[in-house]
Amino acid sequence: MVSQYSSALAKPRIPPHFLNTDHRQRCLAQLRSKHDGLEKYIYLSGLKERDANLFYEVLLGNMLEIIPILYTPTVGDACSNYSHIWRRPEGLYVTIGNKGHIREVLRSWPTGPASRIAVVTDGSRILGLGDLGANGLPISIGKLDLYIAGAGIKPTTTVPICLDLGTNTEKFLDDPLYIGVRRKRPGVEEMDAFMKEFMEAMREVFPSLLVQFEDFSTDNAFRYLDMFRSQYRCFNDDIQGTGAVVLSGFINAARLSSAASGRPLTEHRILFFGAGSAGVGVAKQLLSFFKLMGMSEAEARNRIYTVDSKGLITADRKGLQEHKKFFARTDYQGPPLTNLLDIIEYVKPTALLGLSTIRNAFTEDVVKLMGSLNPRPIIFPLSNPVSLCEVDYADAIRWTNGSVIFASGSPYKPVEFEGKVYEPGQGNNMYIFPGIGMGAILAKARHITDAMIEQAAIALSEALTQEEEDTGLVYPRLARIRDLSARIALTVIRAAQKDEVDENSLCRNLSDERLLDYIKAKQWQPCSMHLTNGSPYSNGVHIVNGNGTATHRL
Ligand SMILES: NC(=O)C1=CN([C@@H]2O[C@H](COP(=O)(O)OP(=O)(O)OC[C@H]3O[C@@H](n4cnc5c(N)ncnc54)[C@H](O)[C@@H]3O)[C@@H](O)[C@H]2O)C=CC1
Ligand SMILES: CC(=O)C(=O)O
Ligand SMILES: [Mg+2]
Questions:
Q1: Which residue of the set 40, 41, 93, 143 is catalytic?
Q2: pLDDT of residue 187 exceeding 70
Q3: Is the predicted pLDDT of residue 544 greater than 80, yes or no?
Q4: Exposure winner among 17, 61, 98, 484, fewest CB in 10 A?
Q5: Where along the chain is the active site annotated (predicted)?
Q6: Does the structure show a pLDDT above 60 at 11?
Q7: Residues near 127 by beta carbon (within 8 Å), at least 6 away in sequence
């Protein structure tokens, strides 16, 4: 005889009043009842597992609240602790042991050739947190959630990937709960051979895929971008995505700053504190700011100064890494400049950009000096997560009496100072990669060209509403991300067409207005019928009907 208990398990029933309640509100209440960021992350991850459709509905309706959990800053905690908070397999791990049969591993991914976008990390530099090895997977998952929420990419076409090639972080190798391969990272030759097989296999198994490289350590970030960008449909988010988003914010910031100082835009001088993949990637993209005004590359380069852990980067320094050479100064004669205050006194920058991972590197003296040199100094502390940010927003406002033009990598709340409320910008590549990806996918671009990246930046810079401009913002409000991504995608498609790398002739025949409609029509929306069947085994994107039976899998 079947007991009452087991029969209830076999046929779970929805509570009688359930249909009249808003499950999204219930989820939000459950989320808000948790007071620890990591607990919220675990809750959301579980919700996605139980009912992905509902998860995306809640995310889309509450982006300002939820993005900082799925993405920076909390995703940093999730990665750092991933081996300990791990609940279930998610994403795709390709390990060094898979060398020789990577194709077979990729073929295990359920959506196969229907896949459109992969975010691939090797976990070697997650945000500013260093080598987290196999714990890096949540960064790929978080970025893809932004593709889904921000651009409307269909969830089932996304592939989060972590390449597990080992880790050089001893504490993980010593941790009995560490989920990754227990070995040190390979040398250059072994890694190159792995990456070549991986990329070849990716194209074979997922022929329509765009690959976003994410959070590779700096040398490898530049190396694999150079190696693969003309061969595959791929880009590096930290170099190119960050470059584009900062160019966009900088265009708007420079206008505000020049309006206050009366100095021409061509006279901006930009000081980069941090010269890794992000610092140099952004510096290279900011050449466009000057070149678009008619300056030569040499003139543009001359407006940019870079600093690393040894101080102002000069060409006479011995053993300079390859990626630092382009901006190394040849015009400075004198003893090495190592102190940031001395460097600022020497350069007299109008803008100070932080991509150093050094918490509070922009001290009160530094910020005040920038304020004394500029009526409206541009200060962008862009390192992630917040715990590594070069200066907090409230301090930057206070130390400049509210004159700072500010954008940070991770989000800050508005600040009230002397009776006025100031709103910060968030200079994070999340504003730009969803639109770049959407455009590249719809154009069926063979490659991601420099013009596609540059046009994406310009489109974002031009997207401020009158109200946003009047408020002094340098980036549009995040709540508009879907519309922004569609507009960015449009310019990316047009740039792909101009560079003749597009393979979707349909887009060529549409006017801008029709193309925008086409892009918006392609944006995936979660369905508002989101009742779950309560099955502990449901793990996809479901639409479920009123009697609790899954009727459609997206
Ligand atoms: N806002 C955004 O959208 C993005 C932000 N980032 C952030 O940028 C940061 C850097 O990333 P990567 O360039 O890939 O890392 P990285 O480790 O290659 O670069 C760090 C750079 O800072 C320099 N540095 C370290 N200590 C210093 C010190 N005391 N003084 C001056 N310079 C110092 C290093 O020499 C190096 O050049 C990370 O925190 C990352 O989260 C990265 C990509 C996007
Ligand atoms: C935002 C990002 O891509 C990073 O901090 O690495
Ligand atoms: Mg990154």
A1: 143
A2: yes
A3: no
A4: 17
A5: 71, 143
A6: yes
A7: 72, 75, 76, 79, 139, 215, 384, 385, 388
Please state whether beta strands 117-121 and 158-164 pair in parallel, antiparallel, or not at all (unpaired). Answer: parallel
Catalytic hit among 41, 56, 71, 332? 71
Backbone angles phi, psi at 474, to 5 degrees: -105, -15
ipTM above 0.90, yes or no: yes
C-alpha closest to that of 234 among 91, 112, 119: 119
Q: For 481-540, write each residue's pLDDT tens digit.
A: 999 999 999 999 999 999 999 999 999 999 999 999 999 999 999 986 444 443 322 333
Could you give the C-alpha distances from 61 to 14, 57, 71, 149, 522, in angstroms and in order? 25, 6, 16, 10, 19
The band of 550, judged by pLDDT with boundaries at 50, 70 and 90, is: very low
Whose C-alpha lies nearest to ligand 1, atom 3?
428
Reported pTM: 0.94
Mean pLDDT value across residues 381-395: 98
Q: Is 428 in the pocket of ligand 2 (CB under 6 A)?
A: yes
Q: What is the whole-number distance in angstroms between the Cα of residue 121 and the centre of ligand 3?
A: 9
Binding residues for a divalent metal cation: 214-215, 238
Rounded (to 5) percent helix, strand, coil in the chain: 50, 10, 40
Q: Tell me the two tokens of residue 376.
A: 């409206």
Per DSSP, the residues of 282-334 read HHHHHHHHHHTTT--HHHHHHTEEEEETTEE-BTTSTT--GGGSTT-BSS--S
Q: Among residues 6, 28, 173, 142, which one has the least CA distance to residue 429?
A: 142
Binding-site members for (S)-malate are 125, 384, 428
Residue 181 pairs with which residues in a beta bridge?
A: none
In the chain, the domains with their CATH numbers are 71-232 (3.40.50.10380), 240-430 (3.40.50.720), 432-522 (3.40.50.10380)
The yes-or-no answer on residue 520 being catalytic is no
The response to whether residue 126 sits with its C-beta less than 6 Å from ligand 2 reads: no
Q: What does the alpha-carbon distance between residue 142 and residue 412 come to, in Å, rounded to a whole number? A: 19
**Tokens at 173, concatenated:** 């190798």
